[in-house]
Amino acid sequence: MRAALFPLGKPYATPRDKLTGQLAQLLLHDNPARDRLTQGIYINDNPNDATGRIEAAFKTVLLAAPIETKLRNAQKQGLLSKGTLPGLLQEALQAGIITETEADLINQAEQARLLAISVDDFSPEQLTSG
Predict the structure, then answer these.
(1) Number of domains, the chain
(2) pLDDT at 78
(3) What is the CB neighbour count within 10 angstroms for residue 61?
(4) pLDDT in tens, 93-110
(5) Across residues 89-94, what is the average pLDDT?
(6) Within a domain: 130
(7) Is residue 125 part of a domain?
(8) 12-55 residue pLDDT tens
(9) Rounded Cα–Cα distance for residues 111 and 56 (Å)
(10) Residue 3 pairs with which residues in a beta bridge?
């Protein structure tokens, strides 16, 4: 799709979906390309800092990704039922599909993810008061 960059002007073409997908994959993994794209941006790993929560969640979720794949594959094979995360982890532990350490990592990733996306989390009382 072509669009004008300026009202009278210089046209540009939006990137194709394939290129957009490739860029998304670069950003979803910890790699030198992501480092180059984020160069000069303030990033820290402190989960108690607003910006650090996102990076901490990113790294924890990446570590947990192979375990989540293991759980999805077990579900596809019929070894695990579908359900809530706590129930799924308990079932996977009992079936010997994951270890206690892996279950802890999945829980840490879930907590980090929730903490990162709950930046504007207000109680109903805070929203309706005075």
Answers:
(1) 2
(2) 93
(3) 19
(4) 999 999 999 999 999 999
(5) 96
(6) no
(7) no
(8) 778 889 988 988 888 888 889 888 888 898 888 888 888 889 88
(9) 11
(10) 12
E strands in the chain = 2-4, 11-13
Count of CB atoms situated within 10 Å of the CB of 6: 8
Q: Do both 80 and 111 map to the same domain?
A: yes
Do 76 and 66 meet the contact criterion of CB atoms below 8 Å apart?
A: no
Domain limits for position 76: 50-117
Band (pLDDT 50/70/90 cuts) for residue 130 is low
**Cα–Cα distance between 92 and 71 in angstroms, integer?**
7
DSSP string, 41-63: S-----TTSHHHHHHHHHHHHHH
Regarding whether 27 and 81 lie in a shared domain, the answer is no
Q: Which token pair is 83?
A: 């359900």
Cβ burial of 24 (10 Å; 0-12, 13-18, 19+) is exposed
Question: HSE of 30 in the Cβ direction (CA atoms, 13 Å)?
Answer: 10
3-state helix, strand, coil in the chain (%, to 5): 60, 5, 35
> Tokens in use for 81?
């039922």
Q: What is the mean pLDDT of the chain?
A: 86
